[in-house]
Protein: Peptidase U32 family protein
Organism: Brevibacillus borstelensis AK1
Amino acid sequence: MTNQTRKKPELLAPAGNLEKLKFAVLYGADAVYIGGQQYGLRAKAGNFTFEDMREGVAFAHERGAKVYVAANIMAHNEDFAGMADYFQMLQKVGIDAVIVADPAIVDVCREAAPGLEIHISTQASVTNWQAVQFWAKEGIPRVVLAREVSLQEICEIKRHVDIEIEAFVHGAMCISYSGRCVLSNHMTNRDANRGGCAQSCRWKYDLFAEEEGDLHPVSAEGDETFTMSSKDLCMLEHIPEMIEAGVDSLKIEGRMKSIHYVATVVNAYRQVIDAYWDSPETFVFKPEWREEIMKAANRPLTTGFYFHQPTEDDQIFGVPPKMTAYDFAGLVLAYDEETGIATIEQRNHFKRGQEVEFIGPGRERFIQRIGEMWDEDGNSLDEAPHPMQKVLVRVEKPVKPYDLMRKEKGTT
């Protein structure tokens, strides 16, 4: 199959709030998925009012991108009050599709907002082609596969069905099957399947042995305690295989992640997808793409279920390795070509003499040390300690609005 006879896969990015939506689109996402203030699984994310959605949809559509809304809770009886009105509003706002897991919610949406496209969420645990075929017969145009599906199984699914397949390529992995966890419910009375996950699996735990009625810790004194924490998924180096398997939408996890995470990860995946799609015969993976991902990584990385059943090597035990993390230090607002001075909005403390990196959509980063810097009135500064402070900084290469300035965490 040639690129002329198939469609380039969509890069789908998370957007926890309106600002993150804009960064995701500007840094290369073909579509973003967001949460409204009801019916989603990320109650702690910023989430969107209907007014935010209107602005986000307008911004995305002007740039050729789509906006999807996650409404993927597993509903209880009381959750249906007002649901029809909610979907009608999403349709009026101009949302391109909703992501749904519960069959009853599918019916409500279809009846209330017949023009609103429905995608089946990964929470529905679709792991085989017959389940995909079931949803296809129901008129569903896209299914988001469960994270437990292998690459070989995706190839098999695509041989039997002719609707769109969406699959995760990057982000946090839940320790429970397709995210259907009850630890949070029992430990904090927060329902993970209705948007309240407390991430109980990421807590520290110890094992105890009972001896003559007394409990004794299994781990030695001073040892880091046992956890159930998975490494994070990363398929950056395997995007060619995902494309050749016929995946229609490549999805990044992380509606609660930072702007720096969204921009960095989307930018890296955008470059890999474009490079392979434009010239699959000559494609060579660049190490700097992997380096970029590592600057936004919160945990060590794994390929999840795609190539093998995960083992202890795909989990984090004991003391987790230290990741080289970066802070989002500043946002470029403007650049004067004549003077080489950028106007930067401070997002984390930075100062004169500090090494920083500038990154922007679709181009290579560059590194420099901060030299001269001034406040808006032209007064010389040694540091920028105030959040959202406007600072003028001389930069060594041209920059553009929405470029990010970042610095390694812990640097002085």
